[in-house]
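Hey,

Quick one before I head out. I ran the complex with L-tyrosinamide overnight. Inputs first:
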Amino acid sequence: MERAFPGSGEPNIMGSTNGSYRDRPEMSDVEKRNGGGEGPATGVIVKAKPKTKKPSMYKVLMLNDDYTPMDFVVHILERFFSKNREEAMRIMLHVHRRGVGVCGVYTYEVAETKVTQVMDFARQHQHPLQCTLEKD
Ligand code: TYC
């Protein structure tokens, strides 16, 4: 973590708290901040670096079964995962041959929504297609 000054994540008035004014009890804090000069404090406002964290990503996995029609799986990949026909076919065949495959990688909420959409859609059409999510 990077901060302008220790002890705070808030914006700070730049002062000489690390430097030579530190051990000058005769100087007020404002004087220290002001570099010891006359007149009002003219400290520079330094914005703390915003803390940003990349969200964890989740793979949406599709599982093979013996009953769901290939065309139906291709349709799901186009409809819920925005794949073109060629890519959808490639993923479907990968799942068909290998047993499991990645439909896409998303943040948790999006991945969870995709899984629900696929499972609901498959159930509505009475296909046993299974879909799940896994931390990337
Ligand atoms: N194995 C299915 C079939 O032969 C096709 C299929 C592919 C099913 C991918 C599910 O996730 C799946 N009809």
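Residues 108-124 form the longest helix (17 residues).

Talk tomorrow,
K.
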